[in-house]
């Protein structure tokens, strides 16, 4: 397994607040690169930028595509998670039109994840509030499992767990943590020692 790690925060509807919470909770010494797959550019607020600036070694980069995904320390792909009508209405379609002709948004996310797998040990954190269908990323989840990457699904107040969450955790290979557990885990692994979330109490 690769020694270098990357954290991917995949955030769908309602995700920006969760991204802010995670970034704000990271230690100033946090030293892992982070890729943010975000629903849309308009979701980036001033608190998000402030959260990035608190974390040394990271910089916020907004991308219109995947070409430069491995060129910096922090990355953002500001597109919708998958083609549903969002609460932002026409804003969703405006961002979809910015894609290449025939581009599938969820496939763009998958290519980004798979590109990271070639260079990094991937820790994928799925953040959503009634938006992201985890199975939309089925191919990437399969590739991640084969590469022994770690998949964490955020489950906290206001975020529904899958109806058969215990079965899904066993069958699909992801872990469910609340936001505080995710922040604690990311801070621990940034110290250079890989801590297996599967060995955490209650997991």
Model description:
The protein is an alpha/beta fold and 203 residues long. It has a single domain, classed as Rossmann fold (3-Layer(aba) Sandwich). The protein is built from seven helices and six strands, in the order βαβαβααβαβαβα. The protein has a six-stranded parallel beta sheet, sandwiched between helices. Helix 1 packs across helix 7. The model is unreliable at 40-103, 158-170, 192-196 and 198-203 (pLDDT under 50).
- Helicity level, as a percent range? 25-40%
Shape: globular
CATH architecture: 3-Layer(aba) Sandwich
User: How large is the share of residues in beta strands?
Assistant: 15-25%
Termini separation (Å)? 22 Å
What does this entry show, briefly?
With 203 residues, this protein is an alpha/beta fold. It has helices spanning 15-25, 46-54, 90-97, 105-117, 138-146, 165-172, 179-189; strands spanning 5-11, 34-38, 74-78, 121-127, 150-154, 175-177.
Write the layout of secondary structure elements.
Elements: E1 5-11, H1 15-25, E2 34-38, H2 46-54, E3 74-78, H3 90-97, H4 105-117, E4 121-127, H5 138-146, E5 150-154, H6 165-172, E6 175-177, H7 179-189
Parallel strand pairs: 1-2, 1-4, 2-3, 4-5, 5-6
Helix pairs in contact: 1-2, 1-7, 4-5
List keywords for this structure.
6-stranded parallel sheet, 203 residues, Rossmann fold, alpha/beta
